[in-house]
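Supplementary Methods. Inverse-folding protocol.

Structures were first reduced to a C-alpha cell string of length 326. This string, shown here, constituted the complete conditioning input.
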C-alpha cells in the first residue's frame, strides 16, 4: 500500500481538488493507497474539509495539529503514522505534479528505495527569493555535501527509509536533507514546478530565514569555522601591529601607538563578540534538542475517531447481546 502524505496549512481552496486529483490518478493506476492530510494547525476551515472527506472516503485520513508547527513537523507526523509499504510526500497546492507518482511507483518496484523528484527549473520565484535560496543552498553544499539546489520535498520512500527517519532522535529536522542523509538506493526524476493551484504561499521572509539558519546549523559547523579563521587572521594582524608599535616605542614615537591600541581593542572585542554569538547560537540549539519537546502535537486523527465509532458500535452490540443473555 502507498501512503500519500500531504502537509496542509490554510489550504481550504485546495483540499478537495487535491484529494480528487490524487485519488483519481492512483485509482486509475490500480494502486492501493491511503491519503493522509496533515493539517498543520490551519486557521481556516481546512480541518473541517479534511474531516468531511475522510467520512465520505475511507482511503482519506486526516491528522490535525493543535497549532501551527511548520511543514517539517507535518511531514514527520505523516511518516510516523502512515501504514504504507512506501510513502510519497507531496505539497497540497499541486506544485508537485501528481502525474509523476505512478512513474515513481514503477521505480520503487524496480528496487529503488528513495525516488527523489528534482526540479528541472525552479519555477516562478521572485528575484529576492531566488537569491536567498541560491545562497542558502550554496552554503549547505559547500559545508555539508548535501546538494539541495533542485531538491524538493516531493519524494517516494520505502518502508525501510521511513523507519530509519522515524528512528532519528533529533527534533530540529530538515526533511529534504535528512532523507538524503539516511542514504539508501536512490534515483532522481525531474519535474517542472507548476504554478500554485490556488491560494498564496504560506512562507514569509522571517519563516524562511529561520528555516535556513536552523538547517545550516543543524547540518554544519561551518559558522564555527569562520570564527577560527577570523581568529587566526586577526592574530596575525595583531602580531604585525604589535611589532610595529614596539618598533615605534623604541624609536621614541610611542604616543602614536594609542591609535593602534584602540583599533586592536575594538577589533578583538568585535571578534570575541561574534564568536560568542555563534557559540550562543549552537548552545541554544543544544538547549532546544535536550528539552525533548515533541516536534508536533496531534489533537485529532480521523482514524482514531473512526476506531472509536466502531468500538462504540461493538460495545453496544456486545451490551445488547449481554442484555439478551441475562
Ligand atoms: N505548509 C505547512 N505548514 C506551514 C507552511 C506550509 O504545512 O507552516 C504546507 C502548505 O500547505 C503546502 C506546502 O507546505 O502544502 C508548501 O507550502 P507553500 O506552497 O506555501 O510553499 P512554496 O511552494 O511557496 O515553497
Ligand atoms: Mg507551493
Amino acid at each position: 500500500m502507498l501512503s500519500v502524505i500531504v502537509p496542509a496549512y490554510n489550504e481550504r481552496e485546495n483540499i478537495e481538488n487535491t484529494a480528487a486529483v490524487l485519488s483519481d490518478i492512483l485509482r486509475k493506476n490500480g494502486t492501493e493507497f491511503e491519503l493522509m492530510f496533515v493539517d498543520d494547525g490551519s486557521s481556516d476551515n481546512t480541518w473541517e474539509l479534511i474531516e468531511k472527506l475522510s467520512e465520505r472516503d475511507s482511503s482519506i485520513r486526516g491528522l490535525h495539529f493543535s497549532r501551527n508547527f511548520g511543514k517539517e513537523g507535518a511531514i514527520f507526523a505523516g511518516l510516523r503514522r502512515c501504514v504504507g509499504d512506501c510513502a510519497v510526500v507531496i505539497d497540497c497546492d499541486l506544485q508537485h505534479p501528481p502525474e509523476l507518482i505512478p512513474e515513481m511507483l514503477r521505480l520503487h518496484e524496480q528496487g529503488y528505495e528513495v525516488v527523489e523528484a528534482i526540479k528541472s527549473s525552479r519555477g516562478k520565484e521572485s528575484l529576492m527569493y531566488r537569491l536567498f535560496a541560491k545562497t542558502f543552498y550554496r552554503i549547505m553544499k559547500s559545508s555539508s555535501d548535501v546538494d539541495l539546489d533542485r531538491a524538493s520535498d516531493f519524494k517516494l520512500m520505502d518502508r525501510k527509509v521511513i523507519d530509519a527517519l522515524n528512528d532519528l532522535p533529533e527534533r530540529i529536522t530538515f526533511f529534504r536533507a535528512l532523507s538524503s542523509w539516511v542514504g539508501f538506493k536512490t534515483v532522481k526524476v525531474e519535474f517542472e514546478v507548476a504554478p500554485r493551484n490556488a491560494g498564496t504561499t504560506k512562507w514569509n521572509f522571517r519563516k524562511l530565514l529561520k528555516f535556513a539558519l536552523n538547517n545550516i546549523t543543524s547540518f554544519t559547523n561551518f559558522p564555527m569555522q569562520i570564527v577560527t579563521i577570523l581568529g587566526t587572521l586577526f592574530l596575525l594582524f595583531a602580531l604585525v601591529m604589535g611589532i610595529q608599535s614596539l618598533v615605534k616605542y623604541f624609536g621614541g614615537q610611542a604616543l602614536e601607538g594609542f591609535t593602534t591600541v584602540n583599533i586592536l581593542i575594538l577589533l578583538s572585542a568585535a571578534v570575541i563578540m561574534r564568536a560568542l554569538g555563534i557559540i550562543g547560537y549552537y548552545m541554544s540549539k543544544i538547549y532546544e534538542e535536550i528539552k525533548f519537546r515533541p516536534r508536533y502535537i496531534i489533537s485529532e486523527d480521523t482514524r482514531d475517531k473512526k476506531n472509536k465509532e466502531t468500538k462504540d458500535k461493538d460495545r453496544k452490540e456486545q451490551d445488547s447481546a449481554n442484555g439478551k443473555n441475562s
